[in-house]
Every structure is written in structure tokens, then in C-alpha cells.
Amino acid sequence: MNMKENSRIEAFSDGVFAIAITLLVLELKVPPVASVRSISDLWNGLVHLWPSYFAFTLSFGILLVSWVNHHYLFNLLEKSSRPFLYANGFLLFTITFMPFPTALLAEYISTDYAKPAIAFYCFGGVINSIGWNIVLHTLYKPQKLIRSEVSLKMVNTIKRSTQIGFLVYSVATIMAFWFPIAALIMNLLLWIVWISLSITTK
Amino acid sequence: MNMKENSRIEAFSDGVFAIAITLLVLELKVPPVASVRSISDLWNGLVHLWPSYFAFTLSFGILLVSWVNHHYLFNLLEKSSRPFLYANGFLLFTITFMPFPTALLAEYISTDYAKPAIAFYCFGGVINSIGWNIVLHTLYKPQKLIRSEVSLKMVNTIKRSTQIGFLVYSVATIMAFWFPIAALIMNLLLWIVWISLSITTK
Amino acid sequence: MNMKENSRIEAFSDGVFAIAITLLVLELKVPPVASVRSISDLWNGLVHLWPSYFAFTLSFGILLVSWVNHHYLFNLLEKSSRPFLYANGFLLFTITFMPFPTALLAEYISTDYAKPAIAFYCFGGVINSIGWNIVLHTLYKPQKLIRSEVSLKMVNTIKRSTQIGFLVYSVATIMAFWFPIAALIMNLLLWIVWISLSITTK
Amino acid sequence: MNMKENSRIEAFSDGVFAIAITLLVLELKVPPVASVRSISDLWNGLVHLWPSYFAFTLSFGILLVSWVNHHYLFNLLEKSSRPFLYANGFLLFTITFMPFPTALLAEYISTDYAKPAIAFYCFGGVINSIGWNIVLHTLYKPQKLIRSEVSLKMVNTIKRSTQIGFLVYSVATIMAFWFPIAALIMNLLLWIVWISLSITTK
Q: Among A96, B84, B105, D149, which residue carries the largest CB count within 10 Å?
């Protein structure tokens, strides 16, 4: 399987990323007319949607960074394999799943029941980082898919950052049971670290 | 009609697959705030969504395997024809339909009325495998679209596995009236068989 | 603007077609659990969805044929222009609109108020065929975009069939006020005529 | 990063534009059967959806023009950079957000509470034009991404029109608090100006 092959997997993956990232907006619900009795009621309604804006923005950022990383990973490949194809499929599964924990977070973050919602949201990150780890594993087994000019050091850097992602999300999931806000902030920090890393490293 | 032609049909098909697979997530409904009175209520609500997680995962798997197969089939072609174009259109029809039986399964699998839902879900598989059989038929009639270097044996293997798919789904549909769980397990097995076949055969 | 230019407009149009055709499935609503008290209730519920299945199938067919035609039209072009770009944009507008009259048809076709729904559905076809007529107009004005080897006779055949589409949909819209079923059958016939024409003419 | 790189960012962006523009139709809600007691009730119901038709058409137009501009901007580039990638990501964020202010506008434009809805809608335009300004900024910093044959005059024209967009949307947002209709007309005019400019300038 050659480069043309990879470009089709890329195109399908791009489609899934683009749709998942756009479906997030469906969680933003217009305040119902029946609940509004004055202009300031509508303003209040729009302001009280802050958990939805926050969840939308956070998940958009995470999916965008994921897409950028996915995109750069494919640049390193020279061929494909069936195990890689299915590993990538599982990764896409964890991507299409994202709108659900996002909606959950938006619904519960401002209530007294935020802990399960935040733990579940972080757990979505755990599953996603498992997906990444499996994909990286199939780059070498059963056959090497990486272009020969790519340095082992670079691949190891990617692998390590994927393992750190798994660790951080796992810790955040557990922390959410006691310190939900701190768990969310860890999510946010991970995202900022990834963007700044990717901007500085090239 | 040449390869460029095929690549546009592929791109359109990839789009439909990517959207259908991503729309599945819309069936996952956040437990409504009004129904939650404690943190453990929300945990229970999330656990009680297992039929939705199950249906989402099953259908995601089926659509992913379908996409992989679609993708490999196109690699065997050297041209296109109008009948093939419409046969592929009908196949896509059966793919875009999938989110509906998936939602039905999620809604009813844990109720006393699971039988019709499971039978209908399996029937979705019957329609889908009819789509595949028609597509394979148009690869030879009215004109041969398959590349000359592809062996007849390979095409026959694909044809046979498509016919088996039709058979298994038909049997599962009928079985669902008496043994709904067994019918579902047949679906699951078919999916696992297809993945392992595809990984080993190339 | 060259061929590469056209291939991007094609890709964007393909995306819009693929999404509009897949969103149709969202109109299929699972019978609510609360309304079901026995297995036969659920079977009845699934059977009573026939207006939705019908509307889904009809609109899928119309959008698929539209995509096939769009796709063949682009094969005739050698360049693009801004007026063509916006004319194509208006055509896509009429395509993205389709899920709405489809949902309307599904909701009302089995009620006593079918006439407005069918008239509105046919009117969707009128708008769509206006879109096609404008696109065809921009193929020659302000500049010729058609490849020089394409015969004038072929272009005139396309133009005439587009004008006939406009006529048939207009008549169907008016007829729907008195003979709604006949108007729907005209829709169906137009679709069958287009498919069989396109299969025989190449 | 080379042209191939850019074509993937383009493909992802095209996907997001195509999905956002097609999701707008989900805001068109079929009048519920329970609210209809006669054929004229249904006609009235369809006519009373005018705010939805208006919002759908306006936002479709804005997104289409944005896509056309995005598309032409990419034609000027010869390479990509990480900051550009993230700036484009933020621009796409403002595009995927559009269905929400559109739904808000549709729900409230015909009520006594139109002012916040229109102000919010115009504010969506402010955010979008900030996105454009950031993208244009990354075309020169930290490195020049524009093809050398593109004249500085052309780039300055684009920059100026982006700054004017920001200004007009900001003024419209503020005006909406007192003269909501005038603010909406400014939106409409901006759109018409952009189309006519783009048709005449090439």
C-alpha cells in the first residue's frame, strides 16, 4: 500500500474530524422563547449559556490540536497496513465520541453534580490517548510504515508525549472525583502545552 | 470514464461514510438535569446509557469495516459506469440509513420490546448486503470495470463473502423473532470475522 | 482559473451534497418508548413511519441524481468564473434546503393536510431547477467555460432537460393544490426518467 | 511545508465550511402536526417560518462568501506555518459557531426581544472578522507565506477590506441596541458589497 492509499485514509479521517468538530455547535441551545419575558431575560439566558460556550471552545481546541497532530503524523508515513487502518479507525471512534462528553460537561458543569461530568469528560481523553498509543504501536508492528529519513529520536518524542497524554488524562479523571476544577484546568493546560510545543518545534 | 472519475466517486462515498459514522453520536443523549437529584443519580444515568454505548460501538464498527471494504474494492477498479454509479448510490443509501436502526436498537434493547428492534437492525444489514451484491454485479455487467491484473479468484472470494453476509443477516433477522440475543451475537461475530479476515488476507 | 480551481469547487460541492444527503436520516424518528406497551405496538410504530421512509427514499434519490448530474457537468468544464462560482453556490443553497421539505412531507403526507406539504415539496424542486438554469447560463456568460471539444448539441440537450425540469416541477406545484398524489407521482417519474436517460445516454 | 501541505489544510477547511453551511437547515423546524387543524393552518405555519428562512438565507450567503474568500486566499499562498495553521483553526472556530447565532436570530427576530438576538448575531460577525485579521497577520509573521508574484497592493486591498469588515460588524453590534433593523441591513449590505466586489475584481 502506497502514498495514494494513505491519502485516502487521510481524506476519510479529515472528514470525520471536520464533522465531529462542527457537530459540537449543536450542543449550543437557543434559550426557548417561552422562557423569555423581557429583553434582559434574553441577555441573561445568553449569559447563562457560559457552560456551553466553555465546553464548545475547550472541545473545539482539543479536536483541532488532535487534527493538527494527526495531520503531521501522516506526513511521516510512507505506507499503510491493515492493523494501522483499524488502529486509526479506533482513534476516529474516540474522536466521533467527543460531542457526547462535551454535551455532558455543558449540561452539568454549573450544577452540584459537576464531578461525574468532569470525570467522564477526562475519561474521554483517556480513551482518546489510548487510541493514539495504539496507532503509534502499529507504525512499527507488524511492519515499519515510517519513512526511512525520519529520525528515531523524533518518533520517540511523539511516543513519549502520547504516553504523557495518557498519564495526565488518567490522573485528571481520578482527581475529578475530589477536585473537579483542578482536573479541568489540567485539560486546559495540556492543550496549551501541546499548541505551544507544536509552534516552537517547527 | 477513467481513474479520475473513480476518485470523485470515492471522494463522495468517503464523505457519506464519514458523515454517517459521525452522526451516530447524536443518538447518545445526555441524562436531563431535571432527572438528576444527586451525584450518584448522574452516575446511574451514565451507566444506564449502556444500550446507547453498545449500539454506537456496534454500528461504528460495522460502518468502519464497510468503509475499509469499499475502499479496497475501489483499488481493484480501472473505470466506472453509470449502472455502477447508481449501484454505489444505492449502497450509500443503505449506509446513510444506519443511524436509524442504531437509534432504535439503543432505545429498545433494554426493554421488553427488544425483538422488533433487533430484527429491524439485522434487516438493515440485509439491505446493506443487497447493496453490496448489486455493486459487485455491476463490476462485470454491462462492462468489465475491474483491472485486468486482478485475479478472478480474488473477485470470487469477495463475491462469496458478500453472499455469506446476505445469508447471515437474513438468518439473524428471522432468528431475532425468537432469539434476539443470539441474532445480535451473529452480527457481532460477522464483524469480528471480517476484521480478522481482512487483517490476515493481505 | 484553471482545472485545479474547478476541482476545489467540486470538492466543496461534493461535501455539501454528501452532508445534505446524509442529514435526511435525522428525519427518521424512533417511536418513543413511552408510546409502546407491547411488541406489536412497536411493530405498528415502525410500520406507521412509512411516510418518513418514503420521503427519505424520494429525497435521497433526487439528491443522488442531482449529484450525478453535477458531477458530469463539471467534466465538461475547462475553467471557472466568479459568476459561475456564485451560481453554483445558489444551486448548493437549494440542495442544503432539501431536508426541510423532506421533513415536511414526512410529517404531513399521511394527514388531511397533505396538500400544502406536497406543494411545498414540489416548490423545492422549482427552486432547485432555477438553480440549475442559472448555473447553465453562467457557462457561456460572461465567458465560455465549456471545453471546446464538447458539442453544442450536447449542451443544448442538457439545457432543454433543465428547462423541462423547471416546467414539470412548476406544474406539479400547482397540481398539488388539487391532486396532491398526482403531483408526487410526477416527482417520482421525473426521477426515474432522469436515471434511465443517464444510463442509456452513456 | 509545501503546496501539498496547504491542500490538506484546504480540504479540512472545505469540510468544515461545507458542514457548517449544511447544518443551518436543521434550524428550519416543521410546524408540529398537533398545532395544525386545517390546511390553511399549515399554510400559515409555513409562512410564519419567515424568520427562519431569512436567517437561513442570510447565514448561507455569509458562509458562502467566506468560503469563496478563503478559497481565493489559499490561491495566493505558497507554503504554510504552524501559527497560520492555528490562526486558520480559530477562523474555522468562528465559522462552526455560526449556526448558533443563526438559530437565535430565527427564534427572536419576530418577537419583542429582537435586539439582543441581532446584537449577538452581529457580534458573531465581529469574532469572524477578528479571525480573518489574525489569519492575514500570520501570512507575513513569523515568515512570508504569500507567493512572490502576488503584488503588495493586492494583499493590502484584502487587509483593508478585512479591517472594514471588523469595523462594520462592530458598529452594527452597537447599533443593534437601538436600531436593530438598521444593524441587520448593514449585514446584508456588507454581503452584497463583497459579492459584487469579488465579481468585478476578477
A: B105
